[in-house]
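Recap slide: Oxygen sensor histidine kinase NreB, sequence and predicted structure.
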Amino acid sequence: MSTQVSRCAVTRERRTGQGRGSAGYDVRQNGTGPDPERTAPSDADAAHRAGAAGDPDARWLALLMHAAFFLLLGASLARFLMRHPGEARTPWIIGLSAVLAALYLLGPVLGSRPTPRRLTWLGALVVVWMVLVVLAPSFAWCAVPLFYTGLRILPPRAALALVALLTLFVVAAQLRLATGFDPNLVLAPPAVAAVATAVFVHMQRQAVRQRDLAVRQRELIDDLLRTRRELAATERREGTLAERQRLSMEIHDTLAQGLSSQQMLLQAADRSWDADPATARRHVLTATGIAERNLAEARRFVHDLAPADLAEGGGLEAALHALADRETAQARGGLTVRCHVEGAPATTLPDRVQSALLRIAQGALANVTEHAEATVAALTLTHLDDRVVLDVADNGRGFSPERQTPRQAGGVRGHGLPAMRARVQQLGGTLTVESAPGEGTVLSAAVPLATHPDAPVTPCAPGTPPTPPAPEEHA
């Protein structure tokens, strides 16, 4: 044991100058969002969608314009009848007024989309109004509701052309009614038409922007919900794989090692059954004890997966002492396992750390028993300021780590050291193996304490150690 003890001392001296390492995790999420390049709809299409979507502002504006049209139409007809009673054109004025009112009432029935029927209706409405203006200039004031109708139905350029035509008719009608030239009658109608058109176009564009913003918000909300669903599914998959890896390590370090020991003991009992019944009986009794221990571990798996030694109370130190005593008793004089604890923890070790170190000790001693042909092994638990270290040393035959090759992926054996390394690295620690032929082996697991809050630590990728595993000890 002198070589192993000196190697442990050198390892501990080396640790005093080591700093605590840190590990970082880069979390990236790839999401898809709405295309920022969008084609702006026309004002006519915006007006149609506003009416179709039940926009209250659009409905109130349409009702106001309808009421204004019939009010102006009735006022113009009343003015004509009051000032021109009994003229020959009066029947024509009354008839054309009725036709204009009927055509206007027909508009909502045809719908609000710029279909050919709708355009034909608008053309007929404008022509009847023009004839009325030619016969009675007072009907020119009905042009304002017609501005709104044209701007709401036609594309922008066609709507502006219609507004200009209607404005010319209004100016001509006002000049016919005037007794002399009045610049106000020439400039006021175009100004009013320009203001009305600008206000209406501005309202339409505002409606388009608000509607576009609402669509974008709905798309973003849909993308957010989809991303959350995908993230939840990914987390469930990662959790499932991590739990599978954890269970595989738990089973390997407990049940699988126990079953392997039972197999060896029963095979030895079978070989010596006739020649040495007493020795065979001892092997069977030892295998029975291991089976009882495995049964306790299996029941513990069913409850909370905590190691049975830790569940019995006393903490990690007591569990390591119990493990050393049990391995010594099961070896029947073939192997003596000693346990030593240096220092005292400033606070209670986290359950994850205690469980991982105990499983590592169990796996390492199983390798010693099965492969090392050692007579003495030592468990040393060292409490430092910023970490806790577990050393497992034996005086067995040892091996050359640099000459070892990893087991085949399909092999049954060879999961021990990768599982130990994965346990340590999940906790942010390191696992080192020092060995040489004929000089025994020292396995050292160092786990930092500052990186272990109560919250669970993100595990490594399931089934893949974060770094390439060192060559396996003995196995």
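The CA atoms of residues 328 and 336 lie 5 Å apart.
Strands lie at 336-342, 376-383, 387-394, 430-435, 441-448.
(End of recap.)
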